Amino acid sequence: MENTGPRILIIDDETQIRRFLRVALTSHGYVVKDVGTGKEGLDAIAMFSPALVILDLGLPDIDGIDVVRQLREWSKVPVIILSVKEQETDKITALDSGADDYVTKPFAMGELLARIRAAMRHITGDEEQPVLQFSDLSIDLVHRRITVDNNEIKLTQTEYEIVKNLAINAGKVMTHRSLLRTVWGPSYEKEVQYLRVYIGQIRRKLERDPSRPRHIITEPGVGYRLL
Amino acid sequence: MAKEKRIDPDELLASLEKEGHGKLTIFLGAAAGVGKTYAMLEAAGEKLSEGIDVVVGLVETHGRAETEAMLKELPIIPTKPQDYKDKTFYEMDLDAILARAPQIVLVDELAHTNIEGSRHKKRYMDVQELLAAGINVYTTLNIQHLETLNDIVAQITGVTVRETVPDQILESASQIKLIDIPPEELIQRLKDGRVYGAGQAIEALQKFFRPGNINALRELALRYTAKKVDRQLESYMRVHGIAGPWPTGEKVLVCISASPFSAKLIRIAKRMATSQNAEWLAIHVEPSLHRLSRNEAERDSMANNLRLAETLGAEIIGLTGDDIADEILEVARKRNVSQIIIGKPEHTRFWAFVHGSVVDKVIRHSQGISIHVIPGNQQEAGQSNKLISNRIKEDSTRPQQWRTLSVLPYVVSIVMMILMTLILTPISSFLGAVNISMLFLLPVLFSAARWGRFPAVITAIMGVITFDFFFVPPFFSFTVADVRYLISFTIFILVALIIGTLSDRLKKQINYSRQRETRVSALYALSRDIAAVNKLDIVLESIASNVAGTIEGQVVLLLPNEKAKLVLQKNSGSNDFLDEKELAVASWVFERGQKAGRGTETLGTAAALYLPLSTEQGVQGVLGIRFNESDAQFDPERIRLLEAFVGLAAMAINRIKLAEQANQALTLVESERLRTALFNSLSHDLRTPLSSIIGAVTGLLEDRNLVYSPEARKDLLQIILNGAERMNRFVGNLLDMARLESGMLKLKKDWCDLQDNIGVAVNRLGESLTNRPLDIQVQPNLPLVQADCILIEQVLINLLDNALKYSEQGSKIVVTTQQRENQLETTVANQGEGIPDTDLSKVFDKFYRLNSPLQVSGTGLGLAICKGIIEAHGGEIWANNNLLGGVTITFTLPLSNQAIGRVPVMNEGV
After folding, report:
1. CB contact, 8 Å: A157 with chain B?
2. ipTM of this complex prediction, to 2 decimal places
3. Extended strands (E) in B47-202
């Protein structure tokens, strides 16, 4: 039986990683193509038309960030970055340049699959859903209401905006910069402390245990994610 | 019962040391002409024919034909011409011989004094240098040149020989060949002209070569050699542990003074000490007042005596004290002296009666010590008297200086006299002559106390005159009606003299004490300055300036560089006197470890005096000092002070060097330790998880028969995951540690919410926190802190991981965070076993692992990384044992002064 699932392109110079990704993703119903260099990758995006690209930052020929930038000039395909723990700045730059999400090597398969799904959700058009449900957390975008276990929680306007932004991009990481830019404006891109204060407040209102948040997850050094 | 043969370690060492040294063979003779040089040349010829490398350093033939003939056979190193006072002298070329490095060199006439400008003052010093370089030396010597026998020879022959050789040279010689011929034969030789040329002979004969003389000298020579053999035998016996008569433990003490008679005492003491195999001490006691009135000649004489004693091997003790006898006896008792040698005093009975005879006192209180009283003869008494009279003469010339210095005392005296007269005249009849004369004493007393002897005498005379003129009948005349007034006049003058002298002395003593005090405090200042300093440069600076200041000269400090060549490190003032030649002198001092330069017997023409900075570890450098006063005869006090300074300096330099070495050694040891720990850790902690991974994986892969059930499979897979995660953590730890160590750690500071960080850390630990109740307490309105959030999260992860590892399953973990004044304090606590109190700070060391009954895996790096990160933030981290068991680790982060300011609402910036 031929797989007719969504197409995923893997760009990574490590043979072993390509191998296991191919095996795992194919088993989950995706159609997988893998290449080893950035150039090949860009070509493949054009030719293969994948629904998602998994891109490793440490490529031999072109810098991963450049691949993203070049790619974004003519394609909106979602990109997930594979990065190593220390490459903080690269990760953020890549995300700000247009990548959608990232996983840090070594990663658990489940994590990657979740992010793949989250990244592709946008495309598959779940935008119309007015009420977003995350286990006990419920967000009504139309009526601008948030309930936890069916109890309404009052949020300030700013708090709501933040939650809304995270919710729309549920499952995907939102960088500090993009959140700040969206909620406060471009000149506030660097003011991480505002986010900290607000996220803290939001968590205290929405989370059962604010110290162990289940919904609003911190991506260290990068941003936040709503699950 | 056999007595234990004790091998004397010193002797053994000495005999071993001799191995590296050159051997000295001395051809000893009773007088000139016995054939020493000839014998030496003969022996050399024999060695030459055996193939040994023999050269002639310097041989005096004195025109004797036979000697000249023998000389032709041997290779000669040409002598070096030295010019002195428009004449050219030929001295032995020491450097050429050293360069040539023969096995044996012949050096004639050991007692010869070198021409000024030579390296050493005496030829025997040259020979010592040759021996130190490992070259064997043959030399000749007459018995009359021996230092200790000098006075005996003088007694015998009536001739005082000036050129002497210290006994030590002979004692250290490996062989003494006595060249002996009967006196008649020697006299015959003399007559035949085979000793001296024709013209000289008669005079020489008459004066020196009387048969009696020659016999006596011969006996001296024979006796000396016999004693030497005796001693050699004893030494041999001791080295080889052969039982024999041991030294008796005698100790000799000789009291010396500035008198030249002391030289005789010293030689007697030396002979006594040698014959009894005893140590000997030379002590000089200076009464504190006495010191002040010594003149140059006396000081020179004293210095010479001290030097003589030192050269002959005495231990010098110098004391100040008023009771000479007491001081002598105290030292004698302390040092277990068995014999004291003291000179019979030249003072008259009266003087002795008044001042107390030192000798009598010593004898009276000597208890068990033998006292040898050596009489001087007329000649010597005369000499010492001359010294005393010189002293008086000098004292009397001194007032000349004073007179030119100040007229103030005399003016004041005159004024006082006038005043006295004016005051007393009106009331003279009331007072009476007696009282008036007493009153006239007052200005005299005043003058004496204030200005000293001479002004006092002048005042006295003036007082007498005034008194006589104005108050003694007949008035206004200088005649004296009543002879009794003459007594008053005499009393005036006596008073003036006595008080004046006392005042003088007192002033001198104060001066002297002040001088002394300055010098001592200079020494103290230097020692205090450099006591705790660890920087070489500062120490050198201190030394140079302190020494230059106190000794009044220009100081240079030379230390060896890496190539062990002497290089100027520090100087006070100018160092323009330091040219090639001076550097050569300094280098010589450095190599030989002996002082040289101006004022010493070696290289005395140098511009400065060079002293080696020696410690037990060897010579550390050289201190050179050029005195500001160019007069050469140095105050022994100054020299002693200088040597004290040098000693201090050497120690300080040595201390710094050793400290540096110790530091390096420590660093090496520490890095060794770490490297070993690291290797051990790497090996173990990487291989262990790998073994479980490979084991499990291969199990699954090779499972052809599908032995494993789904549960088993799941188990194995979990094991593989665990192993891999463990390796991941370990690698992460190593990288973190490496980054911290290499200084590559750059903090990316940003605003952090500790609550957030805790959340991240907890999340990261995921699975391991199941079944572990976790209590997180966050202070409401916790302020944000400026920190590298990711690193803080790493700290929290490590701390949580640690807390989990060292506590039981199911036990609680508590995390708190709160503000304390200007810091943010966070704690992580577990329940379970504690850490031994002594280890509470050690847990943060790299690779430290607690001995725990729970088998804990891990690198021992976790806490060390935490410490590195926290301290890089300027915070602190520490561990405490909980009261109810378990450990709490606390860390603090400094809170920034910056306020966040108002947090704006949304859309403000749009």
Report:
1. yes
2. 0.86
3. 54-58, 80-84, 87-91, 104-107, 136-142, 175-179
